[in-house]
Design a protein that fits this description.
Number of domains: 1
Radius of gyration: 16 Å
Largest sheet: 5 strands, parallel
Strand order of the largest sheet: 3-2-1-4-5
Shape: globular
Number of helices: 7
Number of strands: 5
CATH topology: Rossmann fold
Length: 165
Amino acid sequence: MSTSTAIFPGSFDPITNGHLDIIKRAGDVFSKVVVAVGQNPEKVDVFTPEERVEMISELVSEMSHVSVASYSGLTIDFARQAGATVIVRGIRDSSDLRDELQAANTNLIVGGIETVFLMASEQFALTSSTFIKQIVSMGGKESARLSTLVPDSILKKLQSKFAGP
């Protein structure tokens, strides 16, 4: 295991089982992993940054080398602030890789920080927070199937958000 600190940035709205898999696997490689809850101006969030930090913190509470923090602004600025030498990104498919390569090169050139890619485990390769939100918001509430994609505690919170008044 490396003695470096890595950040795993994302919006995590909501966190999925695929995200948790990447967090666990990053913890096998780096001595400290900071889950960095960012704000993507191109997305409409269901959960506030504070709610996301709280939910993720509960899910990783048994992982002593993992912490959770929210940030705004540039990921490379947060990485420096967190003392990270590496950004971890999960890759689901070739589209992710194309987009992430551009960001990784920019982060290296502008911020001098490396990016390490972890391939999504097969069972999570098609998992998307956006699709999960769409399914739940449109009434898809089959928890047995959705719980393969998102932790039960998060699914309940999602269902509550979309339950209406």
